[in-house]
Design brief:
With about 80 residues, the protein is an alpha+beta fold. About 20% of the residues lie in helices and about 45% in strands. The chain has one domain. Strand 3 and strand 4 form a beta hairpin.
Length: about 80
């Protein structure tokens, strides 16, 4: 399910083999496209292959705890909460 965050950006939550992630998307003319990037291997070198931009959240319980913590951080900026 795609969730718009700006007129040009969106995110989606994916589940694959019990692991959840948030994937970045771009919106162009009412269509969404995954955001791709070449990640850095070393200080001056990038990978040859592009990968989708995403944040791994872990299994369901960990993903829920992470998202709840992010919500608390947005609602109460400056209050640090340690999950682990």
């Amino acid at each position: 399910m795609m969730i718009p965050t700006t007129p040009y950006d969106a995110v989606e939550i994916n589940e694959y083999m019990g692991k959840y992630s948030i994937n970045a998307l771009k919106i162009v003319k009412d269509k969404t496209y995954p955001v791709w990037a070449k990640y850095q291997k070393t200080k001056n070198e990038f990978q040859d292959k592009s990968w989708p931009v995403k944040v791994n959240l872990g299994e369901k319980d960990q993903a829920i705890a992470t998202l709840k913590t992010l919500i608390k951080m947005i609602e109460n900026p400056g209050e640090e909460e340690v999950m682990f």
